UniProtKB/TrEMBL annotation:
Chain ranges of the GGDEF domain: 204-336
Transmembrane segments: none
UniProt enzyme class: transferase
Organism: Idiomarina aquatica
GO cellular component: plasma membrane
Taxon lineage: Bacteria, Pseudomonadati, Pseudomonadota, Gammaproteobacteria, Alteromonadales
Catalytic activity: 2 GTP = 3',3'-c-di-GMP + 2 diphosphate
Gene Ontology MF, one: diguanylate cyclase activity
A Pfam family recorded for this sequence: GAF_2
EC number: 2.7.7.65
Name by which UniProt lists this protein: diguanylate cyclase
Record-linked NCBIfam families: GGDEF
GO BP terms in the entry: cell adhesion involved in single-species biofilm formation; negative regulation of bacterial-type flagellum-dependent cell motility
Gene3D superfamilies: 3.30.450.40, 3.30.70.270
């Protein structure tokens, strides 16, 4: 006879030290096997869309071995039959479900199962099961223990899913706080955080480019704000598609973009000239939006090389902005 006090102590220890289903389930399975003497006890996950049942955790003894990681067609499982027929225990599987090829191949004679439902909609997560090749009639205590453990696992799964959802929401919130919702580029705050990370890995000075889309207001006035937004998206796509993956591209204003990139050679001045030509070619010419083709003469671009580590990004952006403004003044004079 199993020492009930010892089993209760094991249960208390499992609950006290458990933070996730992956740590709770093995402890509960060990207790189940000790108390019930079934050869195999296991927790499964059911994916009804894929039609697959997977063994997540298993404890085996005797001649029956149900391995963790095993995937079987949901349609041929004892668990599915038990749920559909609401018969969760038997000591004669062949009589109840003689059509189950899997049970026949494994030689399962006795079987206990409980569906694990989670969430407000009580969706099927998986099953808690025990099986044996010997005829073994489940006792009332075994049935009660399965009910209790199924409830414990369901609550733990719900907590895991809630934590996972909250973590995902936190990531989305951080991303939304650092990205421009229209173009998907970094915003000014995101640019600052990315530059900090970039500075940890570069060996050459950084180029800081300030891009102002001259004439953007005219595009909005002529084609409408929706087309104007699509034009901004097209500009963003042109930049991120053709600049190095290490370059940081951001939208820092309505029609203003910034690019921060490591110099591509030890000759920073020459590297700056090459970057200016590249940015000018990427942001001028013919752009296709949803409803039309826009021929764009190009923006004003100012670039500075951040070769002093003690300056902040905002300082370099101001200098790049000033350089851009000089370009803009020069272009205006040429247009007169």
């Amino acid at each position: 006879m199993v020492d009930e006090k010892l089993a209760l102590a094991d249960l208390a220890e499992a609950l006290r030290n458990t933070k996730q289903t992956d740590s709770l389930a093995p402890s509960l399975l060990r207790i189940l096997q000790t108390v019930t003497s079934f050869e195999s006890v296991y927790l499964t996950r059911v994916d009804e869309e894929r039609g697959v049942q997977s063994i997540m955790h298993a404890i085996n003894s005797g001649s029956l071995s149900i391995p963790e990681g095993l995937e079987v067609p949901w349609s041929d499982t004892l668990c599915r039959r038990a749920i559909e027929q609401r018969q969760y225990e038997t000591d004669d599987v062949s009589q109840c479900w003689g059509d189950s090829e899997a049970a026949s191949e494994l030689g399962i004679t006795s079987y206990v199962s409980r569906p694990v439902y989670v969430g407000e909609q009580q969706e099927l997560y998986g099953t808690l099961c025990a099986a044996s090749t010997e005829q073994q009639k489940p006792s009332e205590a075994t049935s009660q223990l399965f009910d209790i453990f199924t409830s414990l696992i369901a609550r733990q799964v719900e907590r895991d899913l809630m934590i996972e959802r909250l973590q995902h929401e936190q990531i989305e919130l951080r991303q939304s706080a650092h990205t421009d919702p229209l173009t998907g580029l970094w915003n000014r705050r995101g640019l600052a955080s990315q530059v900090i990370e970039l500075q940890k890995n570069v060996k050459r000075p950084l180029h800081v480019a300030y891009i102002d889309l001259d004439g953007f207001k005219a595009i909005n006035d002529l084609y409408g704000h929706d087309e104007g937004d699509r034009f901004l998206i097209a500009i963003a796509q042109a930049l991120i598609s053709h600049l190095p993956t290490t370059a940081i591209v951001a939208r820092i204003g309505g029609d203003e973009f910034a690019v921060v990139q490591e110099a591509d050679s030890d000759d920073a001045q020459q590297s700056e000239v090459i970057l200016h030509k590249l940015l000018a070619s990427l942001t001028s010419g013919r752009f296709r939006t949803l409803n039309r083709v826009i021929d764009y003469a190009g923006p004003s671009i100012g670039i500075v090389t951040a070769n002093e580590q003690n300056r902040r990004l905002e300082d370099w952006l101001k200098l790049a902005d000033q350089a851009m403004y000089q370009i803009k003044k020069s272009r205006r004079k040429q247009q007169r």
